[in-house]
From TrEMBL:
Domain EAL: residue ranges: 23-277
Protein's organism: Roseateles puraquae
Name this polypeptide is given: GGDEF domain-containing protein
Lineage: Bacteria, Pseudomonadati, Pseudomonadota, Betaproteobacteria, Burkholderiales
Superkingdom assignment: Bacteria
Length: 278
């Protein structure tokens, strides 16, 4: 009924109406989530493949919506991305990650580089470098401690503008990682041109290791490609010792996944960092 002329009635079924209402409600609640302090970051460790040492962490957004428990990002980020809400949320995530690093530093605790996810709209807005620089400055954080995870699609939708933004971000000293690599609209020609530091192999490829015939082919190829381009490779979604062993054999630099640790509150990551590995 979407393409009916503006003078025609649009009939909703009861079901569509309920869905539309639920979406509006969710949006209204989400737009107040920041001021109500209902958003929080969980952290998942990234370990060095060779030593198993925790060398980084990915910040993953959670929404503690009233009494209804933790809402996973898949249930609200896409909605936030439909409006400028994602800009406020995205800036909040960057600020919070820097604030967390500051808290650890002030407490004399060990710190590792923290990676935050960036949404397409947030990247396209054109002021991400300003937002990042302000957060780093506000909390007195060395840019080397911050990494941004972007996807290929964000860069490919406007390669020139994307490259210029990446250059500004890297000029600050921030690291750049291409997330979900291999799942999107990628161009190997541009990959060579984009100023990035790391490729993150998507978990859908990692899952195939030892599971389907030649399931390793893509993972092995991406690791080879990345190293030829002098990029680091991180594998995400590593769940089993067999996956870990294969990735290690192939020279993957870092790994992340339930096998090493689930996303959890900051204290859990700090506990891993503070304990000697056993
Ligand atoms: P992503 O960036 O690809 O993050 C990895 C997702 O895989 C996370 O889901 C993580 O919890 C999950 N994961 C990690 N290890 C394993 C594993 O071993 N097995 C399996 N099955 N899953 C694993 P999560 O936290 O639900 O986040 C989903 C997506 O939401 C993220 O995918 C990212 O695209 C988005 N997201 C999360 N936080 C933010 C944020 O602050 N800003 C934006 N724009 N997007 C975010
Ligand atoms: Ca990510
Ligand atoms: Ca990913
Ligand atoms: Ca993903």
């Amino acid at each position: 009924a979407k393409d009916l002329g503006r003078n025609r009635y649009c009939f909703y079924t009861g079901d569509m109406h309920a869905q539309a209402m639920a979406k509006l409600e969710l949006e209204a609640a989400l737009s107040r989530a920041i001021e109500r302090e209902e958003l929080l970051l969980h952290y998942q460790p990234k370990v060095a493949a060779q030593t198993g040492e925790v060398v980084g962490a990915e910040a993953l957004l959670r929404w503690q919506r009233g009494a209804s428990g933790l809402v996973p990002p898949g249930q609200f980020i896409p909605l936030a991305e439909q409006s400028s809400l994602i800009l406020d949320i995205g800036a909040w995530v960057i600020d919070r990650a820097c604030r967390q690093l500051r808290q650890w530093l002030d407490a004399g605790q060990p710190v590792v580089r923290v990676a935050v996810n960036v949404a397409a709209r947030q990247f396209a807005a054109g002021d991400l470098d300003t937002v990042v620089a302000a957060a780093l400055q506000r909390h007195g954080i060395d840019a080397e401690l911050l990494e941004l995870e972007l996807t290929e699609g964000m860069l490919m939708s406007n390669p020139q503008q994307g490259t210029a933004m990446l250059q500004r971000l890297r000029g600050l000293g921030v690291k750049i990682s291409l997330d979900d690599f291999g799942t999107g609209y990628s161009s190997l020609a541009y990959l060579h041109q984009f100023p990035i530091d790391t490729l993150k192999i998507d978990q859908s490829f990692v899952r195939r290791i030892g599971e389907v015939p030649d399931g390793e082919a893509l993972v092995d190829a991406v690791i080879g490609l990345a190293h030829r381009l002098h990029l680091r490779v991180v594998a995400e979604g590593v769940e089993t010792p067999a996956q870990r062993a294969h990735l290690l054999r192939q020279g993957c630099d870092e790994m992340q996944g339930y096998h090493f640790g689930r996303p959890a509150p900051a204290e859990s990551l700090q506990a891993m960092l503070s304990q000697p590995r056993g």
